Amino acid sequence: MLSGPPVTTTVSAEQLLERFLSAAPRQRRSLLPQLLQRCPELRPLIPEQLDRLDATADDWAPGTLVQLLLSQADGLAEAFWQRHPEGWLAVSSAQGLDYGPLQRALIQQQFEEADRLTSEHLRQLAGTDAVKRGYVYYSEVPPMAAADLESLDRLWVVYSQGRFGFSVQLRLLRSLAGRWDQLWPRLGWKQAGVWTRYPGSFTWSLEAPEGHLPLVNQLRGVRLMDALLSHPALQRRVPA
Hints:
This protein has 14 helices and no strands. The chain is an all-alpha fold and 240 residues long.
């Protein structure tokens, strides 16, 4: 019996987007190479897809679509910024902080700048004394507004394919039964108390270990990070 060449079927761009959005996280990551390969086909479809998605959630799939849409500087990107000048993700601040610059840095995967802005926002949330001294005391964390810590975390999660964020660090810590000494190597950090913040000491890309960013100053031990990860806002985001 004669047979012809094997038939290859390629899903349409619309189907690929739907498959990506509905897939589990691991399956999504396996689809990322296809999305990048077919980016020219997908970009015109993304604005309509974003209109259907919940900008108040913390799903990282829409964040990835935003980054694909803005991978070229053209009319599509210009139209996006005109409609969403602060970024697509809806975030709030109980203290009136502007998270637009942070969202734009994360969209563009400028992770070093995003980390700097996050540290700045934490000082602002801690109060004027923290802003003046240039760092946060662990005792200044509990009063921080829950809405703001949640916004900071959601921004990192949504624009890092779910790899970065305080909630990611908390989930890793719990998986290690609270063993801080085991957390540092998982994050790719130096051990607590050996804080060096030179650009070459950290990886400012998605190639970094899961939970690598944002950074938390551990010069005085784990108390600051422990206070952050113990905050009710983050505890609610990672149910036990």
